[in-house]
Amino acid sequence: MKILSIEASGQVAGCALVTDGVLTGEYSINFKKTHSQTLVPMLENLRRMTELDLKTLDAVALTEGPGSFTGLRIGAATAKGIGLALDLPLIPVPTVDSLAFNLFGTDALVCPLMDARRSQVYTGIYEEKTEPACLLPACAVPVSEVVSRLNSLGREVIFLGDGVPVYREQLREELRVPFLFAPAHLSLQRAASTAVLADLLYRKKGDACYVNADDFRPLYLRKSQAERQREEAEKAGEMEALAAGRLVKEMALKKETMEEDAR
Amino acid sequence: MAKDITILGIESSCDETAAAVVVNGRTVLSNEISSQIDIHTLYGGVVPEIASRKHIERINQVIRKALETAGKTLDDLDAVAVTCGPGLVGALLTGVSEAKAICFARDIPLIGVHHIEGHISANYIAAPELEPPFICLVVSGGHTHLVIVRDYGEYEILGRTEDDAAGEAFDKVARAVGLGYPGGPKIDKAAKEGNPDALHFPRGKVRDSRYDFSFSGLKSSVLNYLNTEKMAGHEISVPDIAASFQKSVVDVLVSHAMEAVDEYHAENFAIAGGVASNSALRAAAQKACEERGVRFFCPPPVLCTDNAAMIACAGYYDFLKGKRSGYDLNAMPNLPLK
Q1: What's the mean pLDDT when you consider all of chain B?
Q2: Are B45 and A252 an interchain contact pair (Cβ–Cβ within 8 Å)?
Q3: Which of A208, B4, B113, B189 is most buried, judging by how many CB atoms fall within 10 Å of its CB?
Q4: What are the structural domain ranges in chain B?
């Protein structure tokens, strides 16, 4: 089983290759360059360095979301393009599942925190003792909500992810259970974790973990601002004002970069 | 005879997800367009985040359909050409990332194409006899450019809009008179029932520049007129406003273009871009060219709208010149035409 994995859900761009359960190679860059510039060059390097014949791949794994909308789409389009070109299935993994799997063999709970802005985190709660188990699946909530869940579980917890530096003080104040922050090399999205987790999923579930590349869609966990405004307009009977362009601010009448908040 | 060059084009710069297979730059084997227009109409314009999400949902199917219709597989391709700018960055990124992944996976050359270069190239598909040099007026929702096409891929920009694009003015006026989105076709249709001389709106002039355009004054003038009539309690005639507004836009576009045609003694004049579908513009440009004995070129509407056949065509001429893009090709929302 040969799985190529792609990571573009946050600031980290990365890729990894797992061959029959062995991590053959991994690239990981946590730098300001856009994923569009780094991801495929990394894949090409990985291919050359590991003398990979792409035709021997069995699947492409990726973090499906949550994460940066733009990053998720770069990862998704890259995975879908490879899937289309080589007739490969995708193995999508929730970003927070992959992050939690950075840690293993601990009695503590693992809680990834990704900064989702608008006062929320993308998070989940996991056990990574002998195999990954999910106690709270991927969601977008205020950090206080996940804290109160952890307090009620009453177990030691390890935090990781790019939301940690944002909420460190609030966590210290509100947590009533012992806690740790993961060190830098375990704290961010890793394509290797995704590839190994995908490999594990395949061993457990077989083809059932596959998603057709054509049908794959990112897991945004959030509607776009415009869709939320549309729902409000529907309730308020203001669909005419919506269609007249009076409600949605980020309209692109001009082909400019008026992109919505990237998260 | 030289081997045929087969290129897959991919376009996702705004609200159409498109893919096409074109042989030797001018023979279109397939031209698939998946339009998102219905969903954006609900919002009165293109919403970037929604456009990006829709592109991701549709892109593989559209590419597959283009290959299938053309009776080709990825093995038959000599290159993949993709729009890399200008446009909405999130929308562009979908096509660019997808194209790079396909090229990486199958070791196919990648060519990043300028969107406006694509629009201009639509004329090569529509008119097999057309060769540079010629003068081209590119008018769309995002662009208004008057360009000398010196050679394939070699452009000199004579003029551009200093504020709104022509298509943008159509959208804004259509909204103001309650016709909704998309403004171009709706104004065109309403104008057919109206009198273009019923109202006089200004013809935008740009100081010290013969070829640049300005449409914001015209737009404001229409909005002011609407307000004044409303305050006075008068009924307005949407067809007359549409026809008079459209006439003002067309007058400016055609008079600037013909000034360039005369100055440069051009033998060929072409129009391109979404607004090139406008019936009044087509008629006026054709008439002005006939008066001068200049040959007039205009792609059919399916090649005026955003499409991937035009991108594959532009990519073909880049391919012949040996131009290739690296895997670090990025989406460039404000990419200038060189």
Answers
A1: 96
A2: yes
A3: B113
A4: 6-121+304-320, 132-299
Give the separation between CA A251 and CA B300, rounded to whole angstroms.
28
CB pair distance less than 8 Å for B50 and A226: yes
CATH-assigned architecture of domain A103-181:
2-Layer Sandwich (3.30)
Q: A84–B61: do the CB atoms touch at under 8 Å?
A: no
- Phi/psi at A55 (5° precision): -65, -15
Q: Do B104 and A44 touch (CB under 8 A)?
A: yes
Q: Do A81 and B328 touch (CB under 8 A)?
A: no
User: Quick check: A29 contacting B, CB < 8 Å?
Assistant: no
> Which residue of B74, B180, B330 is in closest CB contact with A243?
B180
Smallest CA-to-CA distance from B210 within B288, B280, B264 is with B264
**Domain B132-299 of CATH type 3.30.420.40:** yes
What are B272-296's pLDDT values in tens digits?
Answer: 999 999 999 999 999 999 999 999 9
Q: Rounded to whole angstroms, what are the CA distances from A37 to A13, A32, A74, A183, A259?
A: 10, 10, 10, 28, 19
CATH of domain A2-96+188-209: 3.30.420.40
Q: Is B287 strand, coil or helix?
A: helix
Among B87, B94, B172, the residue with its CB nearest the CB of A73 is B94
CATH dotted code for B6-121+304-320 = 3.30.420.40
Which residues belong to CATH 3.30.420.40 in chain A?
A: 2-96+188-209, 103-181
What pLDDT is stored for residue A252 in this prediction? 53
Q: Which residues contact A123 (CB under 8 A, 6 or more apart)?
A: A96, A111, A112, A113, A114, A136, A138, A139, A140, A141, A143, A146, A161, A163
Supply the ipTM of this predicted assembly: 0.95
Tokens of B314: 């532009």
pLDDT tens-place string over residues B211-235: 999 999 999 999 999 999 999 999 9
Give pTM, 2 decimals: 0.95
pLDDT digits (tens, 9 = 90+) for B90-131: 999 999 999 999 999 999 999 999 999 999 999 999 999 999
Give yes or no for A251 touching B (CB within 8 A): yes
Beta strands (DSSP E) in chain B are 6-11, 16-23, 27-35, 79-85, 110-114, 134-139, 144-151, 154-160, 268-272, 295-297
Q: Which residue of A has its CA nearest to B164?
A: A254
Q: Which stretches in chain A have pLDDT values below 50?
A: 253-263
Per-residue confidence (pLDDT) for residue A159, from 0 to 100: 98
